[in-house]
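Revision sheet: structure tokens.
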Amino acid sequence: MNPQKQADFSHYGKSFQESLASLILEDRSFADRIQEVLETEYFELKYLQVFVDRVFDYRDKYSVHPSEKIMTTVLRTEISDEPEPVQKQTRDFFARIHSTQTEDSEYVKSIALDFCRKQTLKKAMIESVSLLKTSSFDEISKIINDAIILGAENNFGYDYIADFEKRFELKTRNSISTGWAPIDEITQGGLGKGELGVGIASTGAGKSFALVHLGAQALKAGKTVVHYTLELSDTVIATRYDSCLTGVHLGEHRQFKEMIYDSIQDIPGKLIVKEYPTKSASTKTITNHLESLRKKGEDIGMILLDYADLLRPVRETREKRHDLENIYEEVRGIAQEYECPIYTVSQTNRGGLNAEIITMEAISEAFNKCFVADLIFTISRTIDDRQNGTGRFFIAKNRFGEDGVILPAKIDLARAKMEVFPPNGETIGEIQALTAKKQSENLKERYKAFREGNKK
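Predicted:
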């Protein structure tokens, strides 16, 4: 057999090789797999060889995957035997990957593993040729089988010891602001990727407007927002965005057409409104649409669903509450798959129609749909609130901090505007007692008027 040139990653290019080296540090389970089959000489660039060598050396020595903080120390103290230019290139590379996110990571991992495993198997086959002379079939079989196993799927979950350093890394959720400072404060900046928020209110209290407000904030942050409407038309939703973003009254948007158009040109994000008839779309329909957008190159930053209760279940059960529970679980799955926050809204039962504070007890149909949500906020508006342009937000559930918080609000639905203010010290008990007192006084007044009317 003629000697062949050493195979390497040179034909994949520099960008591919740098992405691969970055992923080896970033992803412990991937590093476990590829370390079994990777030879650092496959990297054509010396500084990448040095970098990956130090990652593997640390893993071998301490049986723990290094964190980025640890690698800072390693590259400062343990590459002094390398030439000065290589030391600088290695440290510069490490500094660059701090501030960038690896793109097409699954592609890079798949290609690199395939290449390395094939090289390992090729070497095993060459080694086996000499064994044919002695008819060592068992030994040949073992060599080939061992080579096939190397680099195979071996992610069994979070390893308590091997992943020790991960517990001490600062985690970023990449939260998107709600635009409501008091809610941002108690949710650590809003919702992040893979998280589900649910707003609950009675009919006409502003559920859909709350979604428009959240979408508008994401647009201002430069995100691509996909807003699904299952009840209202796409143009009605778009008009509400016009008002929310410009402050123009909903009844006057035709008069200010040019001003609205000029104003929205400067918004850095992108809005896509997709309308489906009520109960015609399922979570599968939503996923298919999102996948089409992703294939077109859209980087989806937030998904809004108005509202999940109006989706058709993928597989119907005998009870509506079970259908709704399944739908909410599937919606949460979409958030995780597309790595962005999803907000949806739900309607209260009759008990929440004129309540001063809406708690989770007022959620219609399936209470269990609350279990999968990361954030649940309610909007309550009594008759007086609707006349005065006020209301109350209540944080019913919050995975990221305090819940049970009452927040006064100013609500102007004519301009799609909602302002939320810090707590003013009100408690549920005090509000309910005040409500009961008002109701009692109203009954007394009515009874008094009734008696006076009869006397006449």
